[in-house]
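A brief tutorial aside. Many learners find it easier to grasp structure tokens once they have seen a single protein encoded end to end. The record that follows does exactly this for Lipoprotein. Read the sequence first, then the structure, and try to relate runs of similar tokens to stretches of the chain.
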Amino acid sequence: MTRFTLVALTCGALTLSACGELSSEKGVDRGPDSKDLLDLQAGIWVDPNGCDHWIIDDGIEGYLSARLDRRTGKPVCSGIAAPTQTVGDFKGGGTQIIGDPF
């Protein structure tokens, strides 16, 4: 077997091993410290345009979603912080297995 064939088979096997059925449950952390995402603390990150985004850092995983007005569905641009800055304890509730050294 040539080296190229061995590499191709290995890559194919790794690609297929990544295929699996994912749960439709989006509100659950599946990391080593699995917990409900409602147990994590969110902060606010302000994008370069000045609009807010919810941010959560779980140590291994991170979550980010636009902060939208409940009535209109439009982005919230509150001016709570300067663009590209964060506010709040968004690392709270993160894992103790792999922490953030900074």
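Self-check: Residues 22 and 45 are 28 Å apart (CA to CA). If you spotted this yourself, you are ready for the next section.
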